[in-house]
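does this look right to u?? 2-acetamido-2-deoxy-beta-D-glucopyranose version
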Amino acid sequence: MRPSMLFNVLILFLFVQTSFCVSPTIKDVCSKISGGSVDYNFCVQALEADPKSEAADVLGLAAISLKLSIANATSIESKIMEFLKNVSDPTTKESMETCSHLYENTTITVLKQSADFIASKNFTAAEDVIGSASIVGIICAEELRETPLAKDCDNLSRLIFLATAVIHEILSTIDLHF
Ligand SMILES: *[C@@H]1O[C@H](CO)[C@@H](O)[C@H](O)[C@H]1NC(C)=O
Ligand SMILES: *[C@@H]1O[C@H](CO)[C@@H](O)[C@H](O)[C@H]1NC(C)=O
Ligand SMILES: *[C@@H]1O[C@H](CO)[C@@H](O)[C@H](O)[C@H]1NC(C)=O
Ligand SMILES: *[C@@H]1O[C@H](CO)[C@@H](O)[C@H](O)[C@H]1NC(C)=O
Ligand SMILES: *[C@@H]1O[C@H](CO)[C@@H](O)[C@H](O)[C@H]1NC(C)=O
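got this back:
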């Protein structure tokens, strides 16, 4: 075989390889999971906030969406603590106390558990534990609807839906192959 021909075969081989083992990009994953509780543009924007997303496969995107959710929940939790120093309305105060408790003791805890399960490739357990974070997300977005934290809580809720959908996508891919 002439060297140039070998080179062509090599290029062809690489081409076939990459076109058949397409690593799911942000676009692929976001279009597969959008609709229902996930908005395509939100998905793309949220994942692109982490530069590691570009090169990540679907597993990496699950880990990144969980990481973003944990960071967001942590930042909202400390914002609530700041507001609580100053809130006088008893109803608002109670809602904020309830949600800071739920974010700290449920959301952040289960998101971290889910991330650990993803790291150990136990996707079923990762999906199981994240359910309660979704419920808290919905409850607190509603509970804090009239507060300056409404937009943040709504975004967190959407990020958790996103993470859940990416994990679900991993599970449905596995189901197809086995
Ligand atoms: C929360 O998520 C949004 C994207 O949904 C992002 O723009 C924002 O920077 C995140 N905040 C933190 C603290 O991670
Ligand atoms: C606390 O309340 C006072 C009076 O309503 C307001 O001027 C101040 O900006 C508030 N501080 C915070 C951190 O919300
Ligand atoms: C989380 O739970 C612990 C133990 O029940 C409690 O001491 C702590 O105050 C809770 N965190 C919040 C923010 O309420
Ligand atoms: C996944 O985690 C759950 C909960 O800890 C455990 O019961 C189950 O055996 C694990 N599955 C695998 C395949 O490791
Ligand atoms: C909510 O998410 C959108 C989309 O990622 C982002 O543009 C916006 O800045 C976020 N808002 C907050 C308050 O985190």
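The chain has a mean pLDDT of 88. idk if thats expected tbh
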